[in-house]
């Protein structure tokens, strides 16, 4: 079986993009992780070098440490003040104590706008208020916002502290202090031994060493290394150049990073400070980075999968809406156009064809039982056809009651005909419906695809054209498209345009709709009792058009109702003219279509035409064919009843050809039965016993109906009908159809009798 559009969608529109995105995200994730790892190593290396370089400078310039530390200390005090001021819930003694420990601040006091202590680090001096002349009072009264004092003795204790102040916008202020002993202890850290101990005690540092200009380790936090002399030529060369150098190494069986920073004093290298850092923390961070990257990658891929799957579901739903018929589940006309376009482009050497399956009586079925019932029947038709077609062929719902079957490869026309007959056999059995079982009249047109340049639209147009060429009055159900049919459609279009012009203007220079009238003769009274109105059409360049042709076109183009109204108006005007001549007992018969009959406004429009013409309703006979009634007996019979109640008479035309039962005549709301010409043609002298025409007449009389025999052409037919008490004759024996003037002359001459 051919691959379905939905199945091909999976690979083409989802798996390939997903694979591409997967690869791209993999590359991006790997690149990002690798970049972060590299940055971490560089950051670690730079941090290590910066620390080592900083300590190397501390060793050289220890004599300037006091000044530098003092400046740093002041900056620290200011930063601490600013940090405390930004804490929202700082008015808490315990919190101030923790802040002091965190920032290594010995004293913290919070003053209100009256220079009174309201909170302190240790809860001391709360309520103490600065007096005039006190340093605190002087700051309080000054315009300065920030002030850092020199070390001084506290006024209420024997301690020496370095104080700093920060004034808030509301007049409150903060005072913090560091004891002088703390400052001196901090300065002592810059002594060499203290520096070594401090460095070695830092987190992550394995070892610290001082290498002199003889490349000897003169001091180290690892005593076992003191006295060793460097032997690595590359290392010695780098150190000799007085440049910062770093490398990854192994120290005491640990992965480590070692930095070498020259100690410069007055432009000369006085030694090298070397610090060894453990790589464990860095490796742990890198491992965490990789893990986070993998997790992020997995989450992205998972989310992307969900999104793509959701998009797939939505697209699948959209494609089903766009390309599949909701009712039957078959591919729809959109899918059909794409499929046929692809088939035409890729014909190769294979023979391809399409079938257009039409359900002939489906419109009437919908109008009779409703569209829901019609939908039930369509579903069953689709399922039945799908069950018998070849898996390589495709079946589509083209529109309301039409389906298209594409044949991928066949041998010859005989094979196509066999397939068509196999499909039509489905419709020989009734289709089960919720209301009642239905027989569907199906027909098939076949178009063989020969031209690779043909468009899909033209191909389907040819299929519809072939379908229209089927004889609706015959048992023919299959038709192959032929080029001559296109000429026929051009002719039909010309006729349709002529009819539209006539309906709008009644007359046109290029076309005319006129009536002929065939006399109807009463056998009992031997006199003319009426005419059957027969419409005629003349179209310039086409000549006279048979009624069966232009009526069929009007029905298909949906203007039969307006055309029928025009014919009724012309017929009633003719009858009115006869009235004026004194013949007020003449009746006119007019054929109407089922489309006219089923229109809700038909009876209203009919009455208006009759009243505007000034004729008696009983002078008008509406003729409707038997086959139409039999297709929708109950519905149409109710319509006929409504018409008869107005006084208008009804005649059943072509009786005997619609497979009706004589027993149903009693149920029909009609006044006349017109026997089809087929039965009249079979009348021959001496064959009375083999004919059923007499039985039809007798049965009709028994149910109170008058009988009209049409197509009477010979005298022996007339005598047979007289013997069997037929009521009315119509045919060439009486007269052929006449134009209006000749019909009036015939009426004047034959009104007394033959």
Written description of the protein model:
There is one protein chain. With 754 residues, the protein is α+β, with helices and mostly antiparallel strands. α14 crosses α15. The chain has four domains: 65-186, Beta-Lactamase, CATH 3.30.450; 191-281, 2-Layer Sandwich (Beta-Lactamase), CATH 3.30.450; 333-482, Alpha-Beta Plaits (2-Layer Sandwich); 514-536 and 560-749, EAL domain (TIM Barrel). The radius of gyration is 56 Å and the shape is elongated. Helix content is 47%, strand content 21%. The protein has an eight-stranded mixed beta barrel with strand order 18-19-21-22-23-24-25-26, surrounded by five helices. Strands 1, 2, 3, 4, 5 and 6 form a six-stranded antiparallel β-sheet that branches. It has 24 helices and 26 strands. The two termini are 74 Å apart.
Question: Which terms would index this structure?
Answer:
single chain, 754 residues, alpha+beta, Beta-Lactamase, Alpha-Beta Plaits, eight-stranded mixed β-barrel, six-stranded antiparallel sheet, 47% helix
Counting H and I runs of at least 4 residues, what is the number of helices?
24
CATH topology of the largest domain: TIM Barrel
Average residue-wise pLDDT: 82
- Note the overall shape: elongated
CATH class of the largest domain, anyone?
Alpha Beta
Q: For the record, give the distance between the C-alpha atoms at the N and C termini, rounded to a whole number.
A: 74 Å
Per DSSP E runs of 2 or more residues, the count of β-strands stands at 26
């Amino acid at each position: 079986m051919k691959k379905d559009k939905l199945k091909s969608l999976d690979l083409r529109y989802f798996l390939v993009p997903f694979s591409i995105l997967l690869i791209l995200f993999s590359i991006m994730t790997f690149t990002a992780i690798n970049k972060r790892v590299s940055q971490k190593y560089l950051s670690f290396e730079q941090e290590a070098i910066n620390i080592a370089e900083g300590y190397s400078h501390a060793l050289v310039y220890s004599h300037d440490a006091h000044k530098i530390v003092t400046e740093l200390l002041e900056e620290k005090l200011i930063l601490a003040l600013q940090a405390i001021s930004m804490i929202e819930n700082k008015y808490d003694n315990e919190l101030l104590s923790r802040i002091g420990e965190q920032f290594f601040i010995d004293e913290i006091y919070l003053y209100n706008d009256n220079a009174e202590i309201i909170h302190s680090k240790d809860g001391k001096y709360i309520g103490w208020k600065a007096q005039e002349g006190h340093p605190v009072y002087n700051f309080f009264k000054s315009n300065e916002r920030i002030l850092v004092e020199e070390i001084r003795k506290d006024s209420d204790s024997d301690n020496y502290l370095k104080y700093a102040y920060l004034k808030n916008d509301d007049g409150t202020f903060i005072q913090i202090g560091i004891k002088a002993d703390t400052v001196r202890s901090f300065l002592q850290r810059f002594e060499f031994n203290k520096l070594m101990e401090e460095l070695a005690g830092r987190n992550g540092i394995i070892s610290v060493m001082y290498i002199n200009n003889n490349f000897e380790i003169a001091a180290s936090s690892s005593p076992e290394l003191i006295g060793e002399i460097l032997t690595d030529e590359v290392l010695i060369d780098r150190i000799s150049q007085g440049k910062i150098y770093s490398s990854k190494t192994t120290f005491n069986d640990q992965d480590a990073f070692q930095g070498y920073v020259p100690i410069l004093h007055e432009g000369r290298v006085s030694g090298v400070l070397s610090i060894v850092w453990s790589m464990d923390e860095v490796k742990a961070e890198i491992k965490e980075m990789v893990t986070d990257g993998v997790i992020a990658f997995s989450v992205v891929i998972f989310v992307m999968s969900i999104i793509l799957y959701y998009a797939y579901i939505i697209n699948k739903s959209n494609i089903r809406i766009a390309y599949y018929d909701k009712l039957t589940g078959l591919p729809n006309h959109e899918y059909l156009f794409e499929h046929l376009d692809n088939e035409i482009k890729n014909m190769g050497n294979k023979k391809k064809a399409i079938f257009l399956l039409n359900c002939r009586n489906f419109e009437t079925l919908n109008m009779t039982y409703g569209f829901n019932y019609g939908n039930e029947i369509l579903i069953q038709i689709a399922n039945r056809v799908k069950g018998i077609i070849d898996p390589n062929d495709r079946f589509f719902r083209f529109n309301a009651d039409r389906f298209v079957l594409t044949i991928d490869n066949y041998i010859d026309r005989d094979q196509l005909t066999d397939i068509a007959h196999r499909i039509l056999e489905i419709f020989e059995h009734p289709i089960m419906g919720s209301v009642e079982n239905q027989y569907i009249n199906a027909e098939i047109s076949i178009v063989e695809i020969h031209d690779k340049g043909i468009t899909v639209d033209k191909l389907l147009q040819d299929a519809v054209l072939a379908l229209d060429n089927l004889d609706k009055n015959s048992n023919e159900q299959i038709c192959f498209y032929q080029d001559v049919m296109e000429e026929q459609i051009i002719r039909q279009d010309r006729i349709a345009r002529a009819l539209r012009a006539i309906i709008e203007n009644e007359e046109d220079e290029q076309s005319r709709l006129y009536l002929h009238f065939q006399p109807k003769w009463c056998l009992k009274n031997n006199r003319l009792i009426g005419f059957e109105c027969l419409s005629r059409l003349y179209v310039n360049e086409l000549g006279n058009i048979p009624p069966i042709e232009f009526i069929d076109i009007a029905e298909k183009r949906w203007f039969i109702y307006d055309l029928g109204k025009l014919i009724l108006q012309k017929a009633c005007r003719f009858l009115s003219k006869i009235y004026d001549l004194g013949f007020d007992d003449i009746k006119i018969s007019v054929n109407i279509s089922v489309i006219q009959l089923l229109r809700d406004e038909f009876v209203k429009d009919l009455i208006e035409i009759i009243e505007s013409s000034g004729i008696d309703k009983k002078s008008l006979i509406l003729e409707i064919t038997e086959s139409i009634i039999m297709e929708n007996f109950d519905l149409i019979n109710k319509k006929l009843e409504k018409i008869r109640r107005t006084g208008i008479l009804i005649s059943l035309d072509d009786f005997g050809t619609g497979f009706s039962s004589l027993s149903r005549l009693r149920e029909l709301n009609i006044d006349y039965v017109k026997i089809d010409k087929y039965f009249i043609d079979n009348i021959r002298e001496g064959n009375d016993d083999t004919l059923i025409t007499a039985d039809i007449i007798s049965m009709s009389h028994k149910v109170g109906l008058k009988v009209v025999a049409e197509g009477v052409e010979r005298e022996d037919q007339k005598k047979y009908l007289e013997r069997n008490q037929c009521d009315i004759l119509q045919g060439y024996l009486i007269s052929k159809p006449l134009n209006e003037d000749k019909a009036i002359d015939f009426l004047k001459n034959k009104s007394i009798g033959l």
